[in-house]
Structure formats: structure tokens, C-alpha cells
Amino acid sequence: MPQKPETYFEHVTKFQIPVNAKDMVKYDTIKFMCDNKHDGKKMSDSPENLFPKISRNDAIEMINQADMAFEEQKYRKTIRLLGQALNAPLSDFDKGYILYLKGKAYHEIGNTAQACHQWSLAIELGLAHPTGVDLISEEYRKHCT
């Protein structure tokens, strides 16, 4: 009897990966989405179906909402909105700004490791600020070295 192909989630669950409660909720939700039938066909485990792309205009709106959330000191909301915005086809300049602000929000909630990671991703884009002031590198030097 031929062996059934393994789904992504069956494959992943073979490994001992430490996760927190939030990850388990996400995993259960994603597994539910993949295991349920949709129009008579099993949904694909591909990331495109799990995390659909959004339009650039929607992403710009999310960035604006994230800016307001940051100003209101709602840092977790800022992080969530910016994470969603990264699913859009954006310019490197837009991505750099998202990663910079996401790093600032992580720093504000005390997660310096994630802040440094976001800033290093932004630095890797190799963008030069129009005024010559490199805010991203300054934040990285100040908090990560």
C-alpha cells in the first residue's frame, strides 16, 4: 500500500520545537485551516494560502495606523500592523521604514533582541536616508552593540 504524502504540519510536529502558548494557538488555527475541506478539496499547506498578500494601498493604510498606534504607545498593535504590512509588495524604502518602526516598538516593550533583529534587517537593505542621517544605524549602535 503506498504511503500517504506527509503534510507540512505532520512533518513539523515530528520535531521537538519549543513554543509559547501564542505559537500553539497560531499553530492550531493554521492546522485547522489546512485540515478542513474547502470546496471539496483539501486546502494547501502553502504559505501563500495561509498568509495572503495584501495590496500596497492596504499596506500604506496599515503603516499609517501603526504610526498612530506608536504615538498612542500601543506598541504591540504597532508590531502587529507592521508585520501584516510586510505581506504587501513594497519598495525597499517602505520595508526599511517598517523594520525601523517595528524595531522601535519592540524596544519600547523591552524586547531588545527583536528590536536589534528588525534594525539589522533594515540595515541589510542598504538604504541611504535623504538627509544623510541614518536613524536605523544610530538605533542599532545605541542599543545593540
Features:
2 domains; 2 strands; two-stranded antiparallel ribbon; mainly alpha; 3% strand; single chain; 145 residues; Serine Threonine Protein Phosphatase 5, Tetratricopeptide repeat
Describe this structure in words.
The chain has 145 residues and is mainly α. The protein has two domains: 42 residues, no CATH class; 89 residues, Alpha Horseshoe (Serine Threonine Protein Phosphatase 5, Tetratricopeptide repeat). The chain is built from eight helices and two strands, in the order H-H-E-E-H-H-H-H-H-H. It has a two-stranded antiparallel sheet. Helix 5 runs antiparallel to helix 6 and helix 7 runs antiparallel to helix 8. About 29% of the residues have low confidence. This is Tetratricopeptide repeat domain protein. It comes from Microscilla marina ATCC 23134. InterPro entries: TPR-like_helical_dom_sf.
